[in-house]
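tool_call: predict_structure(chain=1)
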Amino acid sequence: TQSHGGTEMETGDQVSYFSHDFEYEDYKHTAKAQLDELPTNHVSATELGKIGEDTEQCWERFHKQNIGKFFKDRHYLSKVFPEVIQTDADAVLLEVGCGTGNTIFPLMDLNPRLFVHAFDFSPSAVDVLKQHPSYTPERCNAFVCNFVKDPLPPSVPLCSVDFCSMVFVLSALVPSSMSVALTHLWPTLRPGCLVLVRDYGRFDLAMLRSHRKGSQLDQDLYARGDGTLTYYFTMESLTDLFTAQGFERVSCEYCTVQSINRKTGAKLNRVWVQGKFWKPL
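tool_result:
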């Protein structure tokens, strides 16, 4: 595909930065009409619970199969979240769902005063991260953690984190687990910590495709073929999730990017939600 937007697509098509290629409010009416023509599917709460319990194993299988080759480095995040690289003093970043390090290493390269705690469900992903040439224990503490089930380990001191990044992470959880996960992060964040979130937005192209395939599990929640999940947020649902846990909203917006299929000329509309939330003093 050819993009005239401004982001780094999750499929690896790299362009400069995210943008607002189309108005979300206009687009959502057309997208909703497409979904309304299709049947909906909702599994039981019991089945959702079982699916949620499998999240850890599904991501481990994913990373074992892809061996760090699926996602490209997210260089655009230095523009999306400039606060992390514009620090005047030493700073600590907690990267939630670090995968193989595609978020942290570009940020570490740009800010030599940044120390990173990084964790993931997948031992295989963390192993790949630790083999990166930029990885050093003096600047990064990488570990395996299921932050839905467990608090973070003592290696992340209480009230020590200045920034917390969550890039395409919350969407991988069943909705009932999201608030629990945030409560496990809260004690490590210092008052004034800024939580930086970028995730899938409702009516994203991938959501429409999943709905047509009959992959819906619940409202805005879909399963991929490999068993991993994707939840599609609205600005309101993302904001409500954080404010219910005691955070204050700094900003929240839709990022809309349109790519053009070179062969067919079809317009491919991507929607992400980007938010910044603050732990009060």
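agent: The CA atoms of residues 22 and 256 lie 6 Å apart. Proceeding to next step.
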